[in-house]
Specification:
By secondary structure, this protein is mainly alpha-helical. It has two domains: 154 residues, no CATH class; 122 residues, no CATH class. The chain is 70% helix and 0% strand. The chain is built from 14 helices and no strands. The two termini are 37 Å apart. The relative contact order is 0.15. The C terminus is likely disordered.
């Protein structure tokens, strides 16, 4: 097999970034689940639509919405379908004495709203000539607004990813410059990373954002990262130097490598999965094809 030292190192470091990004994504999703980040962001988005806190409360108390609560503890739903949003809101506005699709009752319900911002917004939505029914108008309004809510959630999630990337990098002492040096000086380790990266790429579901890394992958991370040689007693320090001298040493020697790792890992697992796939494709394309040995013509003539 052909040797690609630079490409193998690029694959190795990309694989390390992918594994660390998966760790960060897994922890991020766990935190988001505990604090119900998706549900709270959706609630904020619905309030920005309806403007009226009382109307928002009635909306969340509606049986259609109560039916999609995540559990018995009253956690906010992380997803509400557009048809459920429209039907619940129409039912609230038309009141108990009219059907939800009664256009006149719906208009009357909007006029009776106390919040002027809610009244103005809903009046404008129900006058949208692009759709035939009020339900279609409300569904389209909701779906367009959810694009903004998705952006809010992604920004919040990205902030957590940066914090987690920094925490994981420092915890593992994942200095990119040190990792590159390790892989350059240890071709065997680089080859092992390449083979494990190949195995990861061949998995049916290789990179869901909250995919857990395997035990073997954890061991590999431990071999190319860690605090080996960086503890206070392992670096040449002046006699009598203390804790802050050690911190100064680490910042001087490791800060650049840490920063590179933090920025790289914060790009996310999908980015590094795609990058790793491209590197692996280049490596595969670079292998020379096996050539068959041409038959000996003299042997063919003798057999004839």
């Amino acid at each position: 097999m052909a040797s690609f030292p630079y490409l193998d190192i690029a694959i190795g470091i990309s694989f390390v970034y992918l594994l660390m990004a998966l760790v960060c994504s897994t922890v991020n999703e766990s935190i988001a689940g505990v604090i119900n980040s998706r549900g709270k962001t959706l609630e904020k988005g619905i309030l920005s639509l309806l403007h009226d806190p009382d109307l928002k409360k009635k909306f969340y108390d509606h049986p259609l919405i109560q039916g999609v609560q995540q559990d018995a503890n009253g956690r906010l739903p992380s997803y509400i379908a557009s048809n459920k949003f429209a039907l619940a809101l129409m039912d609230i506005l038309t009141g108990p004495n009219a059907s939800a699709n009664n256009a006149d009752a719906l208009c009357e319900g909007v006029k009776n709203l106390k919040d002027e911002a809610a009244k103005t917004a809903l009046t404008a939505v129900l006058q949208n000539p692009q759709f035939k029914t009020d339900q279609e108008r409300l569904e389209a309004w909701y779906e367009q607004s959810m694009n903004r809510v998705t952006g809010w959630y992604k920004r919040t999630s990205q902030i957590r990813i940066y914090v987690l990337a920094a925490a994981v990098t420092l915890f593992m002492n994942a200095d990119s410059l040190k990792i590159l040096k390790t892989l350059w000086n240890n071709p065997t380790m680089s080859a092992v990373l390449v083979e494990d990266a190949k195995a990861r790429l061949q998995k049916p579901s290789a990179v869901p954002e909250n995919d857990a890394i395997t035990t073997q992958e954890k061991q590999l991370l431990g071999q190319v990262t860690g605090w080996q040689g960086d503890w206070y007693t392992d670096w040449p320090h002046p006699k009598g130097a203390g804790f802050w001298s050690w911190i100064a040493y680490l910042l001087k020697e490791r800060f650049g490598g840490w920063l590179i790792t933090i920025l790289a890992v914060s790009l996310g697992a999908p980015f590094w999965f795609d990058t790793l796939s491209r590197f692996m494709n280049v490596r595969s394309a670079g292998n020379p094809p096996d050539t068959a040995t041409p038959p000996d013509k003299s042997s063919e003539n003798a057999s004839a």
